[in-house]
Design brief:
Order of helices and strands: EHEHEHEHEHEHEHEHEHHEHEHEHEHH
Strand order of the largest sheet: 3-2-1-4-5-6-7
Number of domains: 2
Shape: elongated
Number of strands: 13
Distance between the termini: 52 Å
Largest sheet: 7 strands, parallel
CATH superfamily of the largest domain: Glycogen Phosphorylase B
Number of helices: 15
Oligomer: single chain
Strand content: 5-15%
CATH topology of the largest domain: Rossmann fold
Radius of gyration: 22 Å
CATH architecture of the largest domain: 3-Layer(aba) Sandwich
């Protein structure tokens, strides 16, 4: 299968890392996968030596140069599936595809974000199928009137940990190799510095945590527009000595930090799924997170986390302290269900969807926006599932 995936993003976070991981997963199975990105963007720099990249200006919705390059690439390489992600590429890409007439590729719109879109038209009419990363996000679009057959959930996955890491025999990273103090519990937060990631609430929770555990070490991984504001506020509310125990590591690979972390802080207030949570669980790091968006869907299948009421900073800090009190020894702990969200499973499910939709598109049996179940399935929703079935859900707080 030949796939072109477009993303005009100028930022870098879990969504962009996931694009590259998905490309790697498809390439490993013998498929062709190319990422169309803005040149010199963080995504292009991250992907450059990992997967094939097509540089595109992607300036705006009427960028003729990008339209021409996308159309030429689709035609020359006989692309089977065009995947779009963001506002500009999700306009230019479908137009380029539709201009090819009957030879056009299947058009898939991915949605990783819980942010309410300003206009639903591109999600309704400028893609053959809308693929979202969680049932919570799918439910959002169904409530907005998107037909059930048009939007499909495929949970994202991360690369499975190695058998060596699974049995705990992998060489452990030492804190001093990361420039961190070697004593005291290590609290880790991974994510872009933006309002909905909850960095301000982390600082509020740290007031209590440092009072009870003054030896705590805190590491923030990521960049973003609010980083300066968070650093300035931290300096205002914490004494100088405490401030020396808070580290801003920038846009680094989180894997080494997972090996030394005692708990992952995830106070996000708007999260479609949360890949960093899955990565932390696979490394045996306990998580404290708010019960929002698609996060509970992770803990339906995996254990190792504590969910608290959104915006309840007191419960959040109390639960973090309880987790630190429970930890004993340095042996890595692999939580139950650690392999429930693997990259391989995501790629297999995606291939199944693409294959069936390509068959429908090329069969000529109906328009891409028609209900494919109008004859044999009627109004039943074949993709519907119970959002939160009983399972090993960890929905608890410290007393």
């Amino acid at each position: 299968m030949k796939i072109l995936h477009l993303d005009c993003s100028t930022g870098f976070g879990g969504q962009e890392r996931d694009h590259v991981a998905e490309a790697v997963g498809f390439l490993a199975k013998g498929h062709e996968y190319v990422l169309g990105v803005r040149p010199h963007s963080p995504l292009e720099e991250y992907a450059r030596n990992k997967v094939p990249v097509l540089p595109l200006p992607l300036r705006n919705n009427v960028d003729r140069e990008s339209f021409g390059k996308i159309r030429a690439f689709l035609k020359e390489h006989a692309i089977d599936v065009l995947v779009t992600t963001s506002y500009i590429d999700s306009f230019l890409g479908p137009l380029a595809a539709l201009s090819l007439g009957s030879r056009r590729p299947l058009v898939i719109r991915q949605r990783h974000l819980m942010n309410p879109p300003r206009n639903l038209f591109p999600f309704r009419r400028m893609c053959d199928r809308l693929v979202v990363v969680s049932d919570a996000l799918r439910l959002f679009f169904l409530e907005k009137g998107i037909p059930f057959w048009h939007v499909v959930t495929i949970h994202r996955g991360v690369e499975a940990i190695s058998p060596e890491r699974k049995d705990g025999s992998e060489k452990k990273v030492r804190r001093k190799n990361l420039g961190l103090p070697e004593s005291g519990p290590l609290l880790l937060q991974v994510g872009m510095f933006q309002r909905d990631k909850g960095h301000h609430m982390t600082l509020d929770a740290l007031k209590t945590i440092f009072r009870e555990r003054p030896d705590s070490v805190v590491v923030f991984l990521g960049e973003g527009p609010l980083k300066g504001e968070i650093m300035a506020r931290s300096q205002r509310i914490f004494p100088e000595q405490t401030g020396k125990q808070i580290f801003y590591a920038g846009r680094e690979n989180p894997a080494p930090y997972f090996q030394v972390a005692d708990v992952l802080l995830h106070p996000s207030v708007r999260e479609a799924l949360g890949l960093v949570i899955i990565e932390a669980i696979q490394h045996g790091v306990p998580i404290v997170a708010f019960r929002i968006g698609g996060i509970p869907e992770i803990f339906n299948r995996m254990s190792g986390g504590y969910l608290v009421r959104p915006f309840d900073v007191r419960a959040f800090s109390r639960t973090v302290l309880a987790v630190l009190g429970e930890k004993t020894g340095d042996a890595p702990q692999i939580f139950a269900g650690w392999n429930s969200f693997t990259l391989d499973q995501t790629v297999e499910k995606t291939l199944t969807l693409y294959g069936s939709e390509l068959e429908h598109l090329r069969s000529g049996l109906g328009k891409s926006h028609d209900n494919p179940y109008r004859i044999i399935g009627g109004r039943a929703d074949p993709f519907r599932m119970t959002l939160f079935p009983p399972g090993n859900m960890q929905d608890k707080e410290a007393p």
